[in-house]
């Protein structure tokens, strides 16, 4: 048997494999030449791939390789994009979770620095923070609170399950800067939500689970 048709079929196979779009017989001839019966070789190649994990199929006169239809389900994989929060975002989330509902100005007063323009946006896009209405004071500032998704993500039944300062200190999750900031926060706790009573750390449970954040 003449080996030339086999060589031509291998060339067709390689061309289709490298192409990112389906190709017609005429398209293939531009690459492999017209020295053979391209349609017949395509049919033969399709027969060779029948029953494999990858099939050669023809759609509207154009040919391409695709995953076998009966195997598509094992190739579907959902991937949750992980996002590591910045220190500013973690501190902001901590303040909201322990003091909600809290306004931007109150967050800035506790942190001692301005809240970056996108920090709250990042937390809301993550689904962990939501607008919680406006405070009935001059200017009626918008306040923020955590969401059920925040509790779910960090494995909390309620905000009462947030760790206290002693818990995080014992776990070695607080450094001198954290402790100094926590002391500054203490003065604002009289206005905090009753649900957040007790010693509240600056670094929330976020740092305990920031590999998932």
TrEMBL record:
<feature type="region of interest" description="Disordered">
    <location>
        <begin position="184"/>
        <end position="213"/>
    </location>
</feature>
<dbReference type="InterPro" id="IPR036388">
    <property type="entry name" value="WH-like_DNA-bd_sf"/>
</dbReference>
<keyword id="KW-0159">Chromosome partition</keyword>
<dbReference type="InterPro" id="IPR005234">
    <property type="entry name" value="ScpB_csome_segregation"/>
</dbReference>
<dbReference type="Pfam" id="PF04079">
    <property type="entry name" value="SMC_ScpB"/>
</dbReference>
<protein>
    <submittedName>
        <fullName>SMC-Scp complex subunit ScpB</fullName>
    </submittedName>
</protein>
<keyword id="KW-0963">Cytoplasm</keyword>
<dbReference type="InterPro" id="IPR036390">
    <property type="entry name" value="WH_DNA-bd_sf"/>
</dbReference>
<keyword id="KW-0132">Cell division</keyword>
<keyword id="KW-0131">Cell cycle</keyword>
<dbReference type="GO" id="GO:0051301">
    <property type="term" value="P:cell division"/>
</dbReference>
<dbReference type="GO" id="GO:0051304">
    <property type="term" value="P:chromosome separation"/>
</dbReference>
